[in-house]
Structures are given as structure tokens and as C-alpha cells.
Structure to design on (201 residues):
């Protein structure tokens, strides 16, 4: 009789434990599903945090926007150049490789400025000077726009770690090629510009 009662109690306890376990598992699963749903619902879309642009200066990514002035105070905004091929060349007057590649940049500018090419020489003025930049451009016979990065903000935006560094941007504002260091070869400059211009848009 005692054994029978013991077995009955054991069976009741086992059944109760299994029910509790099932309830607990269902509760844990429910909480997990609700948590995942809340995360998905509350996550901010990319456009809400970046304005629809990926602020990363890498090939295949949107070129970060900026506005810089030239030595006479005129402002150039990158976004205003959409629809044209843009070459950003970061340089300084004391940089020998920068000086070495300037004639090729000027030649590319003269040959393609009427075909939709814009070359912007971004002087790292934070580690140079506006006067030195002007003198350098005059000595080199540069006719494409020279912009002054007085605070280094644009260099930081583009993660420039060496001078010169050149970014090739297509008509949609996407970075298509980055050349770090220099002097950049004339063949690289010419072929990259030609391919971007021929790509149309």
C-alpha cells in the first residue's frame, strides 16, 4: 500500500514538473520572439542615421560631402559637382611626390575639363599654409581649383594617412579608385579618368 502511494505521488510530481518545464520553455521562447521583434521594429534604418549615404571613404562607397574655400574665399561643394567625374588630390607644398605628380594632374585637367572632369587639389593647409599653397600652385602652373583644408576636417573625413592621396569619384558620387602615396603614374591617372568619363552616367 505504501509503495503504491509512493508511486502515485511520484507520478503526480513528475507530471507537474513536466508541465512546469513546458510552461517555462514556452515562456522563454515567447520572450525571445518578442525581443527579436522589438529589436527589428525599433532599429533605425540606415537613411535615418546617415542621410542615405555611407560615410566611408572606400572604393564602392559614397564620397563624403564637404565644402571648402579656395585662397580667394570662393566655396566649392562636392555635392554640387554630381554628374561630373571628380578627382580629389590631397597634397602639401613641402611634399616631393605631390610636386612630381602635379604636371600630370594639370595635363589631365586641360585635356578633359570640357568632357566632364573636375580635378580638385585639396591642400592639407593644417600642416602647410595658404600662402605656400598659392605660391606652389603658381610655380607649377596649376589651373584646376586649389581648396584649403585649414582645419584638417576633410582629410580626417577621407582618412588621409599619406600625402599625396587621390580619390577618383564617378558621376554618381561613388568612389571608384583610391591611390595612396605617389607620385601616381601618368598611366594610372589617364586610364582611370578615361574609364570613368566613358562610363557615362
Amino acid at each position: 500500500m505504501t509503495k503504491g502511494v509512493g508511486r502515485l505521488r511520484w507520478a503526480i510530481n513528475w507530471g507537474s514538473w513536466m508541465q512546469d518545464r513546458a510552461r517555462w520553455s514556452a515562456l522563454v521562447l515567447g520572450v525571445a520572439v518578442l525581443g527579436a521583434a522589438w529589436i527589428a521594429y525599433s532599429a533605425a534604418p540606415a537613411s535615418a542615421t546617415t542621410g542615405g549615404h555611407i560615410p566611408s571613404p572606400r572604393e564602392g562607397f559614397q564620397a563624403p560631402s564637404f565644402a571648402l574655400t579656395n585662397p580667394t574665399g570662393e566655396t566649392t561643394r562636392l555635392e554640387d559637382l554630381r554628374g561630373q567625374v571628380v578627382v580629389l588630390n590631397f597634397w602639401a607644398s613641402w611634399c616631393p611626390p605631390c610636386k612630381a605628380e602635379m604636371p600630370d594632374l594639370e595635363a589631365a585637367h586641360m585635356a578633359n575639363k570640357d568632357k566632364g572632369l573636375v580635378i580638385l587639389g585639396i591642400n592639407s593647409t593644417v600642416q602647410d599654409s595658404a600662402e605656400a599653397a598659392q605660391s606652389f600652385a603658381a610655380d607649377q602652373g596649376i589651373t584646376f581649383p586649389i581648396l584649403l583644408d585649414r582645419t584638417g576636417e576633410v582629410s580626417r573625413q577621407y582618412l588621409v594617412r599619406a600625402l599625396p592621396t587621390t580619390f577618383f569619384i564617378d558621376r554618381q558620387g561613388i568612389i571608384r579608385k583610391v591611390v595612396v602615396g605617389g607620385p601616381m603614374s601618368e598611366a594610372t591617372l589617364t586610364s582611370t579618368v578615361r574609364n570613368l568619363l566613358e562610363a557615362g552616367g
Observations:
- The longest strand covers residues 85-91.
- The beta strands are 67-69, 75-77, 85-91, 117-123, 146-148, 165-169, 175-180.
- Confidence is low (pLDDT under 50) at residues 31-54.
- The first helix runs from residue 2 to 42.
